[in-house]
Amino acid sequence: MNLLITGGTGFIGSRVAAAAHQRPDAHVRLLSRRALRTPAEATVETETTAETKAETVPGDLAVPASLYGSCTGIDVLVHCASRVSGDPESLAAVNDRGTKALVEEAVRSGVRRILYMSTAAVHGRGPFHGVRPGEAPVAPASATSRTRAAAERHVLDAGGLVLRPHLVYGEGDRWLVPGLVGLLRELSATVTGCEALHSMIDVGTLGRAAVAAALSPAHGPGVHYVNHPAPVPASELLAAVCAHVEQPGEGASVDVTTAYARAAGSPRALHHLGMLTVDHRFADDAFWENLDCAPGEGFTRAFPPAAPWYRSFLTPG
Asked: What is the pLDDT of residue 55?
């Protein structure tokens, strides 16, 4: 089975690539902007590390012409690459038009299955109380989410499979836990009274689940939420961050109203504070049925192993 993986050096894509390499029947090819050279030099290479041997083919989603030939001989496309920041035009160039061009190349090349790693953020900011696939409208609230929703449509129109995790944590996460630590530093305290429930998944399990779904004959076209079945209370998330990563203000705490007042000048802190107070629960137990991958351990056991990486990342150099 020949797989092409995009975003193979990213937070989620690298775990997808690692999981694919563990499959004895899978030959992995990575699409890489770094491999782009002049037309005469743009040939397929083999990149070897201590653990893996992967084909690397040059291609840039922002340059549709560079994608020609990238899917030749490929059975399954696992598309994890996306742009998450930047101006609206650059976001559209990669997430919307780049995905469209990649899907068209996959179809032209006879790729049998296409899987796209999206995000539950395409639904907007909630609240969501146990929403199942098809129950909530796609109503993105940011340029990033709008362009990723457009990417979903290109994949679904081609008969592909879309995965929508909500909060993803683990080594390499530069948004969720770092943002929470930034909020707590801004407040010089933790926050009490945050009882929102969130669907979450550790990045290693997400990578394995994506590969399993991409290769599973039981998972046809459509949309799935991919999270651990047990939602995590915001209070539990905060407690884990304080216990394992950083304790703010020597154990001080404030209520939500005081937290909003203190965070008023920081948009990112306000965003994470708002997340702690609004349910984002997505239910899709059917995803894990007949899948060669289990949802793994819950948050309280899966989070601590990532804490040393978070502490290192958040410690000023």
From this structure: 87
Average pLDDT over residues 87-116: 98
Q: Are 122 and 84 in contact (CB under 8 A)?
A: no
Tokens of 43: 């040939």
Residues sharing a CB contact under 8 Å with residue 133, sequence separation 6 or more, in sequence order:
222, 223, 224, 225, 284
pTM of the model: 0.93
pLDDT at 192: 95
Q: What is the pLDDT of residues 41-64, one digit of tens each?
A: 433 333 333 344 678 999 999 999
CA separation for the pair 57, 46 (Å, rounded):
9
Superfamily per CATH, domain 2-314: NAD(P)-binding Rossmann-like Domain (3.40.50.720)
Distance separating alpha carbons of residues 245 and 21, to the nearest angstrom: 31
DSSP letter string, 137-201:
-----SHHHHHHHHHHHHHHHTT-EEEE--EEESTT--SHHHHHHHHHHHHTSEESS---EE-EE
Q: What are phi and psi for residue 238, nearest 5 degrees?
A: -65, -40
